[in-house]
Design brief:
Elements: E1 2-12, E2 19-25, E3 47-49, E4 64-65, E5 68-69, H1 71-75, H2 81-84, E6 91-93, E7 96-99, H3 100-109, E8 119-123, H4 131-143, E9 148-152, E10 168-172, H5 178-185, H6 190-202, E11 206-212, H7 220-231, E12 238-244, H8 250-255, H9 269-281
Parallel strand pairs: 2-8, 8-9, 9-10, 10-11, 11-12
Antiparallel strand pairs: 1-2, 1-7, 3-6, 4-5
Helix pairs in contact: 3-4, 7-9
This protein binds iron/sulfur cluster (SF4).
Iron/sulfur cluster binds at residues 59, 61, 63-64, 73-74, 77, 80-82.
Length: 289
């Protein structure tokens, strides 16, 4: 079985405990305009282009002229000779395909580097979209006795069936209101709420992450609604983290041929502190990674 990965590498403590091998899996069912990994959105992948390094000769269809690319021509191109026949810094496909066994072997060989409680984290894109492959990969990792974590937007209806294979479940919850959630991400939050409830009831180790975006969820009333939502449940196995907006992915939007639509979305320190204090006062455990 094969799996599409658009980025892989080690990261310390930000994607679960310790030093971790993180696989970013291609494809997402949301379209958040603040996404830091836009190259991971399209299921079929995307062409990342650095125009300053483009060379006209590498395209037999004339899509590249004077360091500009006509993506209309590329959309109908399946051979992609610019990539299959040439190796340049100017253009690449966002993902590579691997066999599941290859990744399990890689993780096994890397296990000496999993210090401080590390292991493997599956991230995205939205990792669960390649559901069968993710299931097989997690099984292989567990058989190899490797600590597993998944970073998910929580929207897959069968997410709960993966719980026995996941040591740490990291779930986003972007907005408590389904309509507002849909207005920015493209989908409502009904399934996410159901999965959150199930996770809080059934999973022993849950980290819930709330991205803080100005104009989307940074009002005091928003913080109160979020806290009120979680206070309904047993959160004794859960912790919470706030992820303030940043612009790290902006350059990649351009490389993918997409317009970056976020402007003035930074939240101030007072907003972050208000969220953290309110959650702590509500007995919701706040952490920083
Ligand atoms: S994807 Fe196809 S059309 Fe586009 S630059 Fe590459 S070879 Fe040319």
């Amino acid at each position: 079985m094969k799996i599409k990965v658009f980025q892989k590498g080690f990261n310390y403590s930000q994607d679960g405990p310790g030093n971790r091998l993180v696989y970013h899996l291609q494809g997402c069912n949301m379209s958040c305009p603040w996404c830091a990994n836009p190259e991971g959105m399209a299921h079929e992948g995307c062409l990342l282009v650095k125009t300053q390094h483009l060379i006209d000769d590498i395209c037999p269809r004339g899509a590249i002229r004077q360091k500009a690319i006509d993506r209309e021509i590329c959309n109908g191109c399946h051979l992609r000779e610019c990539i299959s026949l040439h190796k340049t810094k100017g253009i690449r496909l966002s993902y590579q395909t691997y066999e599941i066994d290859e990744l399990v072997d890689e993780a096994r060989r890397s296990s000496a580097l999993f210090y401080d409680g590390g292991g493997v984290t599956l991230s995205g894109g939205e990792a669960t979209l390649q559901f069968e492959a993710v299931c097989a990969l997690l099984k292989g990792l567990k058989e190899a006795d490797i600590h597993t974590a998944i970073e998910t937007n929580g929207s897959h209806p069968k997410l709960g069936t993966l719980f026995p294979l996941i040591d740490l479940l990291i779930m986003d919850f972007k907005h408590y209101d389904s309509e507002i959630h849909e207005s920015k991400t493209g989908i409502g939050n009904a399934v996410i709420r159901t999965n959150l409830m199930q996770a809080l009831g059934d999973h022993p180790n849950v980290l819930i992450r709330i991205p803080l975006i100005k104009g989307f969820n940074d009002a005091k009333e928003d913080a109160k609604h979020f806290a009120a939502f979680f206070k309904q449940y047993d959160t004794s196995h859960a912790s919470f983290e706030f992820l303030p907006y940043h612009e790290y992915g902006m350059a990649k939007w351009e490389q993918c041929g997409m317009a970056y639509r976020m402007h003035d979305a930074y939240v101030d320190t007072k907003t972050i502190m208000f969220y953290e204090e309110l959650f702590s006062e509500s007995n919701l455990s706040v952490i920083h990674t």
